[in-house]
Amino acid sequence: MSLVPYEPFRHLENMRRELDRFFTADFPAFKTGLGQPFGNLSIDVHETETEVVATCDIPGLEKKEDVDIDIHSNVLQISGSINRASEVKEENLHRRERFVGRFHRSIDLPATVSPEGVKATYRNGVLEIRMPKTKPDRRKINVEFH
Question: pTM of the full predicted structure?
Fold first, then answer.
């Protein structure tokens, strides 16, 4: 039987995640313009033996300068903007549901990752970020007996 370290704040972390999910939901009060929500990205995160993988749907990006990815203190931050050229004059527009504007999302990662070696690819409106895990520093401590 393996021993698992006691984590007294584990339950608080779960509660914080649920509150984050609740407050990033698409509330009607947070709508802008013609009913388009603020840029709230949906992100799937999973981990393998060697890496943490985040997959995010962001349709409409045109160039790599439109998205910024930052990893700091084991938090992944994705931000940027979607600029669509107006194909139709505003007076002829009846419905606008495709998101236009700035977006931002921060999420805690389930494991410690290294910012070096991160690979991000954008294909068919899906951003995939692969972050290599780091091994925790372990060292043996010698105890001095007197």
Answer: 0.64
